[in-house]
Amino acid sequence: MPYYYVDEMTREITGPFEPMLVPGIGVQIPGNAIELPQPLPAVESGYAWVWRDGQAAQLLDLRERLVFRKDNGLSFYWTEFGPLPDHLTVTPRPNEYYIWKDDGWVLDADAERAGQAAQADIERDNRLRTVVIRVAPLQYAYELGEAASEQLTALQAWKRYALNLARIDLQPGYPAIIEWPIAPEQSVVSPAI
User: Fold this and answer.
1) Which InterPro entries match (predicted)?
2) pLDDT tens across 58-96, in order?
3) DSSP-assigned beta bridge partners for residue 105
């Protein structure tokens, strides 16, 4: 009769092995071993023999495989034998705009559009901060009546750029496709003294 080892934590069956014969004592069988009436057949690819409920069962082996939650797409490594619970899949979520539906990841177009719009707003606001930094000295020079013609031209260009930034949501491909306006020359022209 064949002997097999049973892992104490995972209950995975490995072997068979020949028990040790100790002179004067006899055959020694480890505490984590089982004796089966016949050898186990070769395990199928992707499966493992596991000791469950007092018998050997061939179970799906997805251990050390990256699995994904269907509710939020978060991933982790699976550590158990058998099929995955219904709330998990081995199929990765393509991106944060996909939801699990009808046994697969499906694009949520509304969520994607909202996410792209939010990213566009962040980028637009970052660009508008640059406008404020560039326009302030030019505006002060204009208000004090000390602006040179180059400064007035630069001030108008920056204001036009700010207006174009504010209108990106009117572009036909917005928010998936945005043609960002080109910023004017970044240098602030100092008045001639």
Assistant:
1) Phage_T4_Gp38_tail_assem (IPR003458)
2) 999 999 999 999 999 999 999 999 999 999 999 999 999
3) 100
Nearest to 73 by CA among 53, 91, 59, 46: 91
Got the DSSP string for the chain?
A: --EEEE-TTT-BEEEEEPPEEETTTEEE--TTEEE-SSPPPPPPTTEEEEEETTEEEEEEB-TT-EEEETTT--EEE---BSSPPTTEESSPPSSTTEEEETTEEEE-HHHHHHHHHHHHHHHHHHHHHHHHHHHHHHHHHHHTT---HHHHHHHHHHHHHHHHHHTGGGSTTTTTS--PPPP--SSPPPPP-
- Assess contact for 56 and 11: CB atoms under 8 A: no
CA atoms within 13 A on the CB side of 141: 22
The two structure tokens encoding residue 104: 């697969």
- The owner of tokens 């020949």 is 18
